[in-house]
Design a protein that fits this description.
The chain is mainly beta. It is built from 1 helix and 18 strands. This is Transporter.
Length: 323
């Protein structure tokens, strides 16, 4: 009996060792079967169509990214170009310009008399933190933009020549960016933008983008605005990326006050008010990078609805170059 018990114990130990060995082989096989993680520097990005990066450029480096687009809505096409020209002043601070030009084509009146300047933008972005693999902390940056009222907005012989707002505007923003690995090991880059815009007043004379008529003199007070947007970029291969933006914007009411001087009559008080507006939509895009410095983006912004918002489709193409 003692011999049988000893044999049983020996057999049990061998079975336990065999099971442990098989389990270890199974775990190792499962680990070997899991796809490897894509390295951060293995993915090339141009950026999605709308969401701004939270990153800053290295000192002395530049980014140039011109967009060409057509804002198509019922009865009109607003062709335009917006270019981001950014420079790394320090590793944490990037400054730059966003020159904008446009041309309007309308179905119920004359088109723009020519290509005109829109309101130009200057900006600065300061990076607070940077994402590191294995950390939950995203890249965070604060952004300051100033809109310069350089576009025509009043004394318009053609309504389609209006391409600006006539008011200085300051935009404060918070940008966030992080990376996630999908079950197949590919990278997903996620961005979040939050901005608040504070507008000044605009002196208005004659026919204007604010709906005033010839002979008008007064002041327009554009409402402040809020914007939230997020983007998702999936690294399909090193060169190819699928992108999607989701966004919502809100604009407070705009007021216009002044007088109209009709011929041979006393000035007539004018008080106009455009109610607050809300808009939301999405922007799918495809990114392709020729190398780590040069890429192209093709996408479309779609405003699908809202309150006092015009539905529109905006196809766009952009070239992204970093030096």
């Amino acid at each position: 009996m003692r011999w049988q018990a000893k044999t049983a114990r020996r057999t049990a130990r061998r079975l336990a060792a065999l099971c442990a060995g098989l389990l270890g082989v199974g775990v190792a096989a499962a680990q070997d079967a899991s796809p490897p993680r894509q390295a951060l520097d293995d993915a090339w990005w141009t950026g999605p169509m709308l969401a701004n990066s939270a990153e800053t450029l290295p000192t002395g480096h530049m980014l140039i990214e011109p967009y060409v687009y057509d804002v198509t809505s019922k009865g009109s096409d607003a062709f335009g170009s917006r270019a981001y020209v950014l420079y790394g002043l320090t590793d944490r601070l990037t400054v730059g310009l966003i020159p904008i030009i446009g041309y309007n084509r309308v179905s119920n009146g004359p088109n723009s008399s020519g290509i005109g300047l829109g309101d130009q933008i200057v900006q600065a972005q300061y990076r607070l933190t940077r994402f590191h693999e294995g950390s939950w902390l995203p890249t965070l940056a604060v952004q300051l933009q100033e809109t310069l009222p350089t576009g025509r907005y009043d004394n318009l012989a053609r309504a389609s020549d209006g391409m600006g707002g006539g008011a200085w505007a300051t935009t404060l923003g918070l940008n966030a960016q992080s990376y996630f690995w999908m079950p197949n090991g590919r990278l997903l880059r996620v961005r979040l933008n939050l901005t608040r815009t504070f507008s000044g007043d605009a002196d208005v004379t004659g026919a204007s983008v604010y709906g005033t008529a010839p002979g008008f003199r007064g002041t327009a007070r554009p409402g402040d605005a809020f914007y939230i947007g997020t983007s998702f970029e999936y690294s399909l291969t090193r060169r190819w990326v699928l992108a999607l933006d989701l966004f919502r914007s809100h604009g407070a009411a705009t007021r216009v006050d002044g007088t109209t001087d009709p011929v041979d009559a006393l000035p007539t008080p004018v008080h106009l008010r455009a109610g607050s507006s809300d808009a939301w939509g999405y922007a799918p895009a495809v990114e392709y990078s020729f190398n780590s410095s040069l890429g192209v983006l093709l996408g479309a912004r779609v405003i699908v609805g809202g309150h006092n918002a015009t539905r529109s489709l905006t196809p766009a193409i952009a070239i992204n170059y970093v030096h």
